[in-house]
Specification:
CATH superfamily of the largest domain: GntR ligand-binding domain-like
Shape: elongated
Radius of gyration: 19 Å
Number of strands: 3
Strand content: under 5%
CATH architecture of the largest domain: Up-down Bundle
CATH topology of the largest domain: Four Helix Bundle (Hemerythrin (Met), subunit A)
Number of helices: 10
Largest sheet: 3 strands, antiparallel
Strand order of the largest sheet: 1-3-2
Helix content: over 70%
Order of helices and strands: HHEHHEEHHHHHH
Length: about 220
């Protein structure tokens, strides 16, 4: 648990409610594989490790449960969430619906500055080597495209769906073939957005999300 302790110390330097600090450390530990899928989270042990009350830890669990990262299971308490193939299918369906809507709203409002910024992100992604950098840039790419849609509630919902996928995305981004295909999709989406081709951009985006879902389903099945 030394890795969890070091993560806790890192996030404690940030000014935010202590329950948020604990939630951030646990989230990072889950995403990095320090805490495994299906693993029980002992409230008392975590409270002792962080030097906080069990009430604070319960609040942290609640925050993570809202994101779908942790499950509160009767008689077991908090458990690191595991996705089923049905969960993946539902998340993919929701992401396609939300993201194609966002890109349709955004395209008429995208400026040359937006395209310059997105192009820079794509180029940085080509060169990125660390997992944290790749995931962060991937998030930045989609966020920059959708920002002009001015749909904060939709973006907040989308972020929760993305977080549920992140542990699996970490595995996918380690594979060069997935990164290459993803980057090809990114470039196609940007090109179609430049052309104001809403339907084309939506189609490529939907395929991009669906393919990611398929890859995650394969991971879950051990293929």
């Amino acid at each position: 648990m030394e890795q969890l302790t070091s993560l806790a110390q890192a996030v404690q330097e940030k000014r935010q409610p202590i329950s948020g600090v604990v939630a951030n450390a646990l989230r990072e530990a889950i995403f990095r594989g320090v805490l495994k899928q299906g693993e029980s989270l002992r409230q008392d042990a975590i409270a002792k490790q962080f030097g906080v009350s069990q009430v604070t830890v319960r609040e942290a669990f609640r925050l993570l449960a809202e994101e779908g990262i942790v499950e509160i299971v009767p008689r077991r308490g908090a458990v690191v969430a595991s996705l089923s193939s049905t969960d993946v299918e539902e998340i993919v369906e929701l992401r396609i619906a939300l993201e194609t809507m966002l890109v349709a709203h955004a395209i008429p409002l995208l400026t040359e500055d937006d395209f310059v910024a997105v192009d820079k992100i794509v180029k940085k992604l080509d060169k990125a080597r660390t997992m944290d950098e790749q995931l962060s840039l991937n998030v930045d790419f989609h966020a920059r495209l959708y920002l002009r849609a001015d749909r904060p509630r939709t973006l907040a919902t989308l972020e929760k769906l993305r977080l549920a996928f992140e542990p699996y995305l970490r595995l996918l981004w380690t594979r060069s073939d997935y990164k290459l295909r993803s980057q090809d999709d990114h470039r196609d989406i940007v090109s179609l957005c430049r052309e104001h081709n809403v339907k084309g951009a939506q189609d490529v985006l939907a395929k991009h999300i669906a393919n990611t879902g398929t890859e995650i389903t394969h991971l879950l099945s051990g293929d």
